[in-house]
Design brief:
With 112 residues, the protein is α+β, with helices and mostly antiparallel strands. The protein contains 5 helices and 8 strands.
Length: 112
């Protein structure tokens, strides 16, 4: 078994709306202003860790059914922006993307 965390890809500024809501903010502009980041430099093409979802305990069979890709994962904690190195990601046929707990270890230490 491997713990997989759901991540949400960021491809457009509008994708930051969910990030704003999960942090208790109103707009995507709040995300940029409160974290001191810019969309193109810090968010575009990255994946945001969904901290509201419980990790999926995926079996080896589950993992084998996923398509492996790679990317950077962003997490927020108390308004602070943290980003991982490029790590393996796993894409499901329904469009969901996951990152393994072991690959997120350094990032998780910073936010929890």
């Amino acid at each position: 078994m491997k713990k997989l965390y759901l991540v949400n890809p960021i491809a457009r500024p509008e994708d930051l709306g969910d990030v704003a809501r999960s942090e208790g903010w109103q707009t995507r502009t709040d995300v940029l202003r409160k974290t001191g980041t810019s969309f193109n430099t810090h968010w575009n093409g990255k994946n945001v860790l969904d901290q509201d979802e419980k990790p999926w305990n995926a079996s080896e069979e589950d993992i084998a059914s996923l398509t492996q890709t790679s990317g950077e994962v962003v997490a927020l904690s108390e308004g602070q922006y943290y980003v991982s190195n490029t790590i393996p990601l796993f894409a499901d046929t329904d469009g969901s993307i996951y990152a393994a707990e072991e690959d997120l270890e350094d990032l998780l230490k910073q936010i929890f």
